[in-house]
Amino acid sequence: SQQGEEDPQALSIQEGENATMNCSYKTSINNLQWYRQNSGRGLVHLILIRSNEREKHSGRLRVTLDTSKKSSSLLITASRAADTASYFCATGTTDSWGKLQFGAGTQVVVTP
Amino acid sequence: GAVVSQHPSWVICKSGTSVKIECRSLDFQATTMFWYRQFPKQSLMLMATSNEGSKATYEQGVEKDKFLINHASLTLSTLTVTSAHPEDSSFYICSAPGTLFTDTQYFGPGTRLTVL
Question: Which of A21, A50, A23, A45 minimizes the C-alpha distance to A34?
Answer without folding.
Answer: A45
